[in-house]
Amino acid sequence: MTNELKLAAEIRAEKNGKAKKVLAAGYIPAVIYGSGMENMNLKIKKHDLERAYEIAGESSLIKLAVEGEEPMKVIIKEIQRSGVKSSIIHADFYKVDMKKKIFVEIPLNFMGEAKAVKELGGTLVKNLDAVEVECLPGDIIKEIEVDLTKLETFDDVIKLSDLKMPADIELVSQDDLVVASVLEQRAEEEVKEEAPAPAEAVPVKEGEKEEGKEEGKKEERNKK
């Protein structure tokens, strides 16, 4: 378990809590909900929240101190960003019960270099960037390492079952899901060979042309 961060928050009154005003004042609006509590509207200093999210992401415990309340153990459940500057404009916090298991996504950290890429010229394919797990809040880890050096040939794959997981953390997804593999680069000559040949015009003999004309004349006469 990583060292938990500390973050301070203030109560956000509904009547004065319009998001634009909060953001303009240098705060980010937020809400906290979870075990044994009603939803609570908050505001957090922009710099403090951005720093906490950069360090903790959505897979680390945070000790949230709200004015007038006992400090709470929380995780960041969701972050909303603006479409223009990609700045954080809202945050959801989930209060955890340290004795109850929760579902959380833990990011994958791809380590090393695949031999099939470095020496064979293949392309690394990452099918997942995070995995969902179930565990007690105190057992949450910040990331799970993926050892890419195991990919020595184009036939090698890394599955969820190959990841080194702490004993107290249980994978939610099926363990046969492929996390990473290496795709072989196909030679340009092979691609050209498989490309469909352009359709060739079928020559029409003179006799066939005349027959076609006669048939056309007959059809015209029948119509009359």
Structural commentary:
The chain has 224 residues and is an alpha+beta fold. It has 2 domains: 5-96, Ribosomal Protein L25, Chain P; 104-192, RNA Polymerase Alpha Subunit, Chain A, domain 2 (Beta Complex). Helix content is 21%, strand content 37%. The chain contains 5 helices and 13 strands. It has helices at residues 19-24, 46-56, 115-118, 188-194, 206-223, and strands at 5-11, 27-34, 37-45, 62-66, 72-81, 88-95, 102-111, 123-126, 130-135, 144-147, 157-159, 170-171, 178-183. The strands form 3 sheets. Strands 1-3-2-6-5-4 form a 6-stranded mixed β-barrel. Strands 10-7-9-12 form a 4-stranded mixed β-sheet, with no helix packed on it. Strand 5 (72-81) and strand 6 (88-95) form a beta hairpin. The longest helix is centred in the last third of the chain and has 18 residues, at 206-223. The protein is elongated.
